[in-house]
Amino acid sequence: MISDSSLFVLLPVSSTSQPPSPAHSSADPKWQAPAFDITVIVDPVSRGAQKIGPILSVLRQVVNCDIRIFLNCVEKNSDMPLKSFYRYVLEPEVQFTADGHLAAGPYAKFTNMPGAPLLTQNMHVPENWLVESIVSPYDLDNIRLEEVQSVVHSQFELEHLLLEGHCFEATMGNPPRGLQITLGTESEPVVVDTIVMANLGYFQLKANPGAWILRLRQGRSSEIFDITSHEGSDTPVNSTDIKVLISSFRSHVLKLRVTKKPDKIGMDLLGEDDDSQPGLWNSITSTFGSSKEEQVEAETINIFSVASGHLYERFLRIMMLSVLKNTKSPVKFWFLKNYLSPTFKDFLPRMAKEYGFQYELVQYKWPRWLHQQTEKQRIIWGYKILFLDVLFPLDVKKIIFVDADQVVRADMKELVDLDLGGAPYGYTPFCESRTTMDGFRFWKHGYWRNHLQGRRYHISALYVVDLRRLEAWLLAKSLARQTLPY
C-alpha cells in the first residue's frame, strides 16, 4: 500500500499491447498509441515516492504505457520528511547468467551512501511473509560505512508464508476468545497451532507451500465448538476437513464461523485450565534441546527477552549469565527470533551446551490491522507487551521478562513465587543500592517524586506475567486496541 501518493490508471485503449498484424499498417495511429495512460500525483520526498519510483520504472519496461508524473510538494516541513534510503527489489523479467542458467535472483544495492551517519538496515516485506537474516557478519542495526573496509553484505531468507484468518461465533458474532486452531497434513495432523485473539478474531499460522488441513485443536476447543462455515479454503464438496492450499506468495486469509455444541452452550473456553492438552505451539516456536520430565518443567524458570543488534546481543549474553549465576532452579530462555542476528543464532546452541540451559526462539508477525510502527525499536518494544499471550505454549504458566541490558542480582525463583493477588503483571521496584547512580534517578526529583509520594518506582525492564491470568483477562488485546500512532 502506498499511503503518501495517488496512482490513477486511466481506461485502457486496448486490453493488450501486441505488434500489428500484416493487415494493419504500422503507421496506423491506433497501433502507435499507448495501451495504458498512467498518471501519478506524488510528493517527491515522501515514503510513497520511494516505493512508487521503481514500480513505475519497471512498468515502463514491460507495459506499453504513457506515464505522467505530477509532483505535489509540501510547501514547508517542520522536520526532515525522509530519513531513509530505499531500494525496491523488482525486476522486469526473469534474469539469466551468461551461460544460460537462472540467475541467483534480484538484490538491493546501495551506492554513494554517506559514511558518517549511523544507519540501520530493515526489510519491508508483504504482510504474509516471515523473513529472517541468515548471513551477515556486520551489525545491521549499527552500520557506519566509514568504518567498513569493503562493503556491507547481508542475505535474507523467506522462512514461512503466513496463513491468516478471522474466526467468529456464528450466533453472537463475537470472537471465540482463546479458541485453539491447528494446521497439519494427512500424515501429521498437528504441525503448527495457534490461538484466536479477541481483536477481530484474528489468528496466524506459519505455513509453507503445500496442502494443509485446518482443525480445532483436540481438547476444550474441539469439545465445545464445531466449525460450521468457512471462506477462503480449498475444501472439496462433502469433505469433513478444512483443506487449505498454499500455492502463491500472496496473502491467504480465511474466515471461520464456529458454533457451540448443544450440550456446551454454557461452557467457556477460559473457564478452567486444560492441563491435559498442553499446547505444542510449533506455529510460533522452534524448539531446541530434548524434552524434560514434567516435574523439571514445573520447576523451570522461564525468562523472555528481546534484542536487536550486536551491542544489545552482548548485553543479552551478560544478562543470561547473571540469571544463571544467581538462580538455582533450571532456566529456560525465550527469545524473539524476528530480530536476532545470524551471529547470535549461531552462537546460542554452543552457549546453551556450555552453561546448561534450555532455550526456544519464538516468532510472531505484527498484525496488519494493528497500527504499524515505523521505527524498529518501537516495534521490538511492542512485542514485549502486546503479544505475550500468543507467543508462548499453554503449559508455560508464568514468564519473566528481562530487558537485555539488565544485570540480575537475585534468584528469579522469588519473582516466580511472588503472590500477584490475582493480577496478571507483577513489576519490580527499581534498585537504589548504588548511591553513585543517584543523579540518574529521575523519580527522586520533580514531577515523579510528587507523583509517587514515597512509593517505590517500578519499571518495565523486569516483570513477571501470569500468562493464564493474562489470557483470561485478555489484557494483551485490550492494550493492542488502545495502541495509537506516535
TrEMBL record:
It catalyses: N(4)-(alpha-D-Man-(1->2)-alpha-D-Man-(1->2)-alpha-D-Man-(1->3)-[alpha-D-Man-(1->2)-alpha-D-Man-(1->3)-[alpha-D-Man-(1->2)-alpha-D-Man-(1->6)]-alpha-D-Man-(1->6)]-beta-D-Man-(1->4)-beta-D-GlcNAc-(1->4)-beta-D-GlcNAc)-L-asparaginyl-[protein] (N-glucan mannose isomer 9A1,2,3B1,2,3) + UDP-alpha-D-glucose = N(4)-(alpha-D-Glc-(1->3)-alpha-D-Man-(1->2)-alpha-D-Man-(1->2)-alpha-D-Man-(1->3)-[alpha-D-Man-(1->2)-alpha-D-Man-(1->3)-[alpha-D-Man-(1->2)-alpha-D-Man-(1->6)]-alpha-D-Man-(1->6)]-beta-D-Man-(1->4)-beta-D-GlcNAc-(1->4)-beta-D-GlcNAc)-L-asparaginyl-[protein] + UDP + H(+). It comes from the Eukaryota. Residues 301-473 form the Glucosyltransferase 24 catalytic domain. Its cofactor is Ca(2+). GO terms for biological process: ERAD pathway; protein N-linked glycosylation via asparagine. Pfam families: Glyco_transf_24 (PF18404), UDP-g_GGTase (PF06427). InterPro entries: Glyco_transf_24, Nucleotide-diphossugar_trans, UDP-g_GGtrans. One of its GO terms (molecular function) is unfolded protein binding. SUPFAM superfamilies: Nucleotide-diphospho-sugar transferases (SSF53448). GO terms for cellular component: endoplasmic reticulum. Gene3D superfamilies: Spore Coat Polysaccharide Biosynthesis Protein SpsA, Chain A. Recognizes glycoproteins with minor folding defects. Reglucosylates single N-glycans near the misfolded part of the protein, thus providing quality control for protein folding in the endoplasmic reticulum. Reglucosylated proteins are recognized by calreticulin for recycling to the endoplasmic reticulum and refolding or degradation. This is Glucosyltransferase 24 catalytic domain-containing protein. It comes from Laodelphax striatellus.
